[in-house]
Amino acid sequence: MDMTRRDIHNSEVPALCRSCEVRHKGMCGALTPDELLLLSKHTRQVQHTSGDELVGEGADVESYDNVMRGVVKLSKTLEDGRQQIVGLQFAPDFVGRLQAGESPMTAEAASDVEVCRVPRAMLERLVEQSPTLRKRLLEQALRELDEAREWMVTLGRKTAAEKVASLLLLIALHLDPEQKGEKRLFDLPMSRLDIADFLGLTIETVSRQMTKLKADGIITITANRHIEVLSLTRLKARCG
Amino acid sequence: MDMTRRDIHNSEVPALCRSCEVRHKGMCGALTPDELLLLSKHTRQVQHTSGDELVGEGADVESYDNVMRGVVKLSKTLEDGRQQIVGLQFAPDFVGRLQAGESPMTAEAASDVEVCRVPRAMLERLVEQSPTLRKRLLEQALRELDEAREWMVTLGRKTAAEKVASLLLLIALHLDPEQKGEKRLFDLPMSRLDIADFLGLTIETVSRQMTKLKADGIITITANRHIEVLSLTRLKARCG
DNA sequence: CACTGGGCTTGATCTTGATCAAGGATGGAC
DNA sequence: GTCCATCCTTGATCAAGATCAAGCCCAGTG
């Protein structure tokens, strides 16, 4: 039984992190009322604006974040500055490498982001004592692993046109899974440079491919980041 | 505390899977003697020769494999046949997507391989009852996730020359971590086509880059797959 | 309003790696 | 041994995408 992000979000386990004063089910959903109460005393709701760094590559892990709203991008950088985005985290994902002293990558707010921050010691204590939480975290790790491997196919074997289509599809499906039908309207949570860094391309190539999708009547671009997908089917057909 | 593959292999937990009549610590190391005894009654040692498929993409997951010897490659294929290798599994890695009805990718023996095969129902029962095993599996999932993301940087942002150097380095360090000093002697566990599919390149490009590394005195190629790295430092310097 | 700067698009040209095409090694079958 | 198939290398050419170079759009500022 494969739990999707949606399933986790909608699961029936009651969860209320008091310091955040909201229900967030990504992590808390796995906890007992007692554990939740304990957790609540240590969590802190934090707002980030686009571009803020949550954790730096190689920095000591001090805390973990449960994404409540917005999109967090995970990236790695080579010595000479070449950058690759290795993952996007949407609500209610959990950000932060467990069981590691230092973060293997940078986590940065792609859009304005709201997170529930848990101190490292606290979370590790909970992970230690809660098998349910470990199970939930294993599920997320396995899902992220699937997503990373899926993306490796995109990076290694798809053309620029297919890469751009794949990213638009990914975002369209993640940002508002509620929208039905063939059309999707959304704001890109990232700049052209971010897109290029995610796809292993340059901004110019991304721009040209977006223009082409527009010319072919598959999307319309209202503002730079305001996208409407006119036909999901035709978009999927371009994903390779 | 980050457990490396080596640490797991060398951990002090006693483990003996009776049907295999060998200690294999990747998975069994996390079990109690009672659980191990139970497991032993259901495992089966299986030999595969290079090219054998362990699990097909989209096939129902019937069992899981603990790699004992050799290298298993994980790959995904697009409809039109383009293939991407998304991971290599060395002993004592565990092969098989937990908590999924069907495998998201193909697992294939890259070299001759020996595995300890556990029926699905059996493993799921053990995972359910053993928090230690879940912890061990979470560790492997997190390590694989790190490796996958590291490889995304290689796929997305490195040149052909850097990609080939990175793969040789990866294999040199994995296959025999005992070898010390600047030199490494090993057999490539994969064909030029496999290498190309791992790196998102063509066989011709791989071949040219290997020739270049040889010409530059960084490796010698005895037979097609018999490689000696003459200077790890100089190889690392080419990894980008 | 004009000015500025950042992010995006578009065009011209160049480079890297793909593609097409031969030919060379290696190993198994007979 | 010869034949054959498979895998690998090398060379010539091509094309996808990078790079270089303007110019555009738009929000923010004075």
Structure report:
2 copies of one chain form a homodimer. Chain A has 240 residues and is an alpha+beta fold. Chain A folds into 2 domains: 5-154, Jelly Rolls; 158-236, Winged helix-like DNA-binding domain superfamily/Winged helix DNA-binding domain (Arc Repressor Mutant, subunit A, Orthogonal Bundle), CATH 1.10.10. Chain A has 8 helices and 11 strands. Chain A has helices at residues 5-10, 33-40, 120-129, 131-157, 160-175, 192-199, 203-215, 232-236; strands spanning 44-48, 53-55, 63-69, 71-77, 83-90, 94-95, 106-109, 113-119, 184-187, 219-221, 226-229. A 4-stranded antiparallel β-sheet of chain A has the order 1-8-3-6. A 4-stranded antiparallel β-sheet of chain A has the order 2-7-4-5. In chain A, a hairpin with a 4-residue loop joins strand 10 and strand 11 (226-229). In chain A, helix 5 (160-175) crosses helix 7 (203-215) and helix 6 crosses helix 7 (203-215). Chain A is globular, with a radius of gyration of 18 Å. The two termini of chain A are 28 Å apart. Mean pLDDT of chain A is 86; it is low at 1-16. Chain A binds a DNA duplex (30 and 30 nucleotides) through residues 159-160, 191-193, 201-205, 207-208, 210-211, 223-224.
The CATH first-level class of the largest domain in chain A comes to: Mainly Beta
Fraction of helical residues of chain A: 25-40%
Quote the beta fraction of chain A.
Answer: 15-25%
Read across the widest sheet of chain A, the strand sequence of neighbours is: 1-8-3-6
SSE topology string of chain A: HHEEEEEEEEHHHEHHEEH
* Biggest interface, CB < 8 A: A-B, 44 and 45 residues
* Backbone structural class of chain A: alpha+beta
Q: Count of DSSP helices of chain A?
A: 8
The biggest beta sheet of chain A is recorded as: 4 strands, antiparallel
Oligomer description: homodimer
The geometry of chain A reads as: globular
CATH T-level topology of the largest domain in chain A? Jelly Rolls
* Radius of gyration of chain A using CA atoms only: 18 Å
The CATH superfamily of the largest domain in chain A turns out to be Jelly Rolls
Protein name (chains A, B): Crp/Fnr family transcriptional regulator
Domain Cyclic nucleotide-binding (chains A, B): 27-144
Keywords (chains A, B): DNA-binding, Transcription, Transcription regulation
Pfam families (chains A, B): cNMP_binding, HTH_Crp_2
